[in-house]
Structure formats: structure tokens, C-alpha cells
Amino acid sequence: MLWTKPNTGKALSKLANALMMDPSSLSSGEREMIAARVSYLNNCNYCCNSHSAAANCHLHNTALVESVKQDPQTADVSSKMKSLLSIAEKVQQSGKSVTGEDCDSARKAGATDEEIHETVLIAAAFCMFNRYVDGLGALEPEDKEEYKQMGLRRSVKGYGFPPFAWQRSYLNNKRNNRLALKKH
Question: What whole-number distance in Å separates Cα of residue 50 and Cα of residue 100?
């Protein structure tokens, strides 16, 4: 999907990479769990499964990632992470739902203003990514094991724009499909 329109695809890839891989006091695994939780709440299976897989690759704890997706308040994560996930859930509903009390609660649990900012930005961005993926009808892998490979690739290589060979293959398939439609 990203290479259908390369100028926006590159920008979206850079945003995802910055949010999930750039240096931060939140680990990449924690940031992936925020993305997975928001995607779960948005019923975006593709993003939920791929970011859960990436979180698993960083954290090596499938049960933890699953429990965070289902109910972060009962998951075995820190009070700080619970408060940040609560903020992310509110952003998923509406950015205006986040209150000063939510931020104060996160600070009391040990979150910094930068971590709160990152959480809000990740949650907001993944609402957009989820709608983008679902709006364009992204196909989910038939073999769910492919998500593990996606997670591994993202956890190691990040979210760089897809390699040229993938772009060329995608565009050739798209062109061939258009040509086939014209013949009929």
C-alpha cells in the first residue's frame, strides 16, 4: 500500500520508524504494545497482529502482549505503563478525552512529559494508520505465522520504506491486473 503513492508512503514509513524505533525512554516493545492496544480497540486486525508480533520480538513475552491488548489494567506491567495505556485508550476515543488529571496520574506513576507526548502521538498516529489500512482493504496474511516474520523484520530493520523490488513487483501486479480487466 505504501508504495502506491511513494511520496506519502515514505513520509508514513518515516513517521512509523520515528515513533517506534527512535531513541526514547519508552522501549520499542512498550511503544509496540501501545500501537497494538490502539489497533485492537480500533478492530484493525492487520495492525493489531503485526504490532503485537513486533512487541513480542522486543519483549519475548507473548502472554504479556496479549494481556495488554485485552485489558492493560490487569496486565503485569508497571503503573506507569498502565497509566500511559489508559491515555492511549482515551486518545483512541477522542483526543479531547485526555484530561489534565490523566496526565497528572501518569506523572505520579513515573511518566515524563515526553513519554506522555509520545503515547498521545503513537495512539493518534495508529488511529490514522488503522483507518488507512482498513480503508484501503489491506489483505491479512492467510498464514498467521507471517505476522511473526513481519514482527521480526520490524523489530530488527524498523519501518523503512519497502525495498524497490517489492515496489516493482506490486506495481507490475497492479498493471497486469488493470490490463487483464481491460481485456474482459
Answer: 32
